[in-house]
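Protein modeling request. Please complete all fields; requests missing the sequence field cannot be processed.
Requester role: graduate student
Desired output: 3D structure, token encoding
Chains: 1
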Amino acid sequence: MTPFRETVLAIVAQIPEGRVTSYGAVAAMAGQPRAARGVGWILNHLPADTDLPWWRVVNRDGGLSTYKLPGGMGPLQRARLEAEGVELDEGVQVRDQRFWWEPWRSDR
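Delivered output (108 residues):
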């Protein structure tokens, strides 16, 4: 396992229930601010039975990028987020800033 992958998994594990963060934010926290796609790749290749809360990672606009993937992970991601109380709009986006996890900001 690469150090970047290990760091990404550790960061994703810390995202609190009912909150989301972006692929880019995870990449930046992992020390690679231009590696959002790498974060997506890592999360897309997790084992199906993982306990890691991958569903709490969304795109920079709050959208569920998993709707673009084959295999139907978008509805599962939406269901898991909604089960945690995260509100998504009709466009399948998290728009309300109260759901965003930004540990570098002291007011969140």
